[in-house]
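re: that chain from earlier
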Amino acid sequence: MKKIYSILLFAFIATAFISCNNDDDNNSSNLNNELLVNGKTYPLKAGALEYYGNESGNHSSGLILVTTEVNENEEAEDEFFNSIFFEIFTSERTIGTREYKFFEGELANTFSDFSEIKIMTETEDMIDIDNYELTAGVLNIISLNPYEVTFKGKARNWDDETDIVDFEGHYKGNLYEYDYSEE
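^ sequence. v structure.
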């Protein structure tokens, strides 16, 4: 009986230990159409993919995700909203499903330091806008129709270089598509 008790106790402890390890190792978030900046979550409601043209031998596109509904004329439903913008460089005209890493400059299959986050905070007597320049991270484009993207990284406040924040997010849905290459 003592042997059975010891075996059951060992099995229970091993199971509990393995379960805890799996929980600790799972660093993926449960964000669903949300942007998380410095611990605060914002819902992502719409987005656009803008093509700018071929610059320096690379094609330049912008992916913008916002916390408001947007119509086909790029007009926001809400006056105040938050956004995350990635300037993506590719070797092909269109973006593809892949991982894009941060790079300071214009290199194919990366997103650049022109990428940013804008967070608006409305108080009683004013609107405060924090602009953050993306300084590190990864953008994963999982699918194109509908679009699904995940992203994670660090950003620095334009007004206070010591204000470094973590960001991450997920968006799945349609994107408005615009071609500004001829303008």
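Residues 90 and 108 are 4 Å apart (CA to CA).
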